[in-house]
Amino acid sequence: MSQHPQASDAPTVQFPVQRLGEPSAPQATPVEALRPRRRLFMVGGLAAAVLGAIGGAGAYAYAGEVPRGTSVLGVDIGGKSRSEAVAALKSGLAWKVRTLGAPVPVRVGEQAAEVNPADVGLAVDVEATVAAAIERSADPVSLLFGSHELDPVVTVDEGKLHDVLGAALGKDARAMKLPSITFAGTTPKATYPVPGRGLHAEKSADAVRDGWLGGAPVVVPIVEIHPTTTKEDVDKLIAEFARPAVAAPVTVTTERGDVTVAPAAIAKSLRLVADKSGRIEPGLDAKKLRAALAGPLGAVEVAPKDAQVSIVGGKPRVTEGAEGRQVDVGALAPALLEVLPLRDGRTVAGKLVTAKPATSAADIAKLGIKERVSTFTTNFTGGLSAPRSQNIVQAAKEVDGALVKPGAVFSLNGRTGERGYAQGYRDAPVILDGKLVPGVGGGTSQFTTTLFNAAYYAGLEDIEHKPHSYYFSRYPAVIESTIFWPNLDLKFRNDTDYGIVIDTSWTADSITVSMYSTKVWDSVKTQYGPRRDITSPKVTKLPKGPTCIPTNGIPGFTQDAFRVFRKAGKEVKREKFTWTYLAEPRFTCG
């Protein structure tokens, strides 16, 4: 670009124009006009000198990747490359291991505690600290005139720290009440959230990181903890989901027919409980859904059949099971959830899938069931046709062939379920409130005693049993058991390494229970102590009628029985069983 002919680098000096009638103003000389420019040149020269000095200092300060004069916890890492700074900081901090590894005093509310750095991952992140030093944008003037102490980057495991501090919180903690929606029948009931007091994991970690190396106890804040779901959220969930969910049935279509999921079944399997944060996410419990639909599903399903062990000629024989076809309830649950809020279109497709037996012949073959390890027999009173004997046989049928795997607990109530008229049981005398009265299932205590003794002499672990209140001579003293649905049960654990099959059989006047497995003990026998504290029966007169059953009365006593285990010709252990029998009154009628 060409310059104007009159353009010049010299400053322009302007003279004011005097108008007619105005007084003349003092006029500045060209020298005076130039003075400010000269001062400007002087200031500019000084600035240039300073900048030049800083530029030289900057070059000095930034020699290496880490600015010179940078230190961390007293360790100089300035003027070094990244790798050199990392090595120097690691080496320097190694000498401070006593300080860095010392317990950190903390105050959590009113509680004083200590945190061991090693327990919660509290440490200096050397790599991150050096990276922060390199990335730090320092003031050029401070680089010229001073050093720079850089705070270290501190790491901590928030979860572990939260657990440690939570244990120290003590009485200052107050758990928040989590919201939920349950059903009374098909009516939803709300449990509203209530905030608690406790620790916030992130805030606690920040406090410990910031105060770790300060020397003073670290104050960890206690905060109010609110569940994620509010009262308004719960009310909305009831109105928009829970009530519509049980307002009408849902139809499940399958290739073998339709299944109706009644509102009651939906209510039993619907889960509307909060997670740890207090958030309610609707779900369906697949196991509860299957249990609630046991009847309807039976019309379209074919249950798988487990492999069975039967005793033929005194030897175990395995029969292979068979596959079944069942509705995939796990896949059905999410589909049901989608239609539960709807008024119309409450139909979903169910898929029938192959259901394999829980136990195969190959599974049984591994269990070592090869011989009889115990057997026990008791005699009927009244013959096989008597209602009491029929109840005993009915229980024996339901238990026959039961497989008890290693570590499993057998429950007689669990195996037979409720023993009522619908299950084939009849009225026979039972003991109720200390006297014999007619009751459904009477006599099953004899089967219970027979089963208990078979398990006892097999050496299996006794979990639950209760002898009768009165002594009956048809049972072995102390080593016997009664049962009553659902409060009294007989339970034992298979504490061997082998499977056990329970075999039952009966004759016209007796019931026998045998256990088949692999023998663990050479013998299991009983040694009795003498009877003591003998009491005599009292005579009690009852009103004459169908509920009165006369008895002759039986003395009461206390006795010990010792289960003695022998192996390799030696006594290995013995277990003590003790029971006190009441004197059975002599009941007369009328």
From TrEMBL:
User: Which ranges are annotated Polar residues under compositional bias?
Assistant: 1-11
Record's InterPro entries? Glycopeptide_resist_protein, TAT_signal, Vancomycin_resist_VanW, YoaR-like_PG-bd
Which Pfam families does UniProt cross-reference here?
A: PG_binding_4 (PF12229), VanW (PF04294)
Q: Where in the numbering of this chain does the YoaR-like putative peptidoglycan binding domain appear?
A: 238-346
Q: Which UniProt keywords apply?
A: Membrane, Transmembrane, Transmembrane helix
Region of interest (Disordered), residue spans = 1-30
- Transmembrane ranges? 40-63
Query: Is Transmembrane helix one of the keywords UniProt gives this record?
Result: yes
**What is the top-level taxon of the source organism?**
Bacteria
The molecule here is called Vancomycin resistance protein YoaR, contains peptidoglycan-binding and VanW domains
Q: Which organism is it from?
A: Asanoa ishikariensis
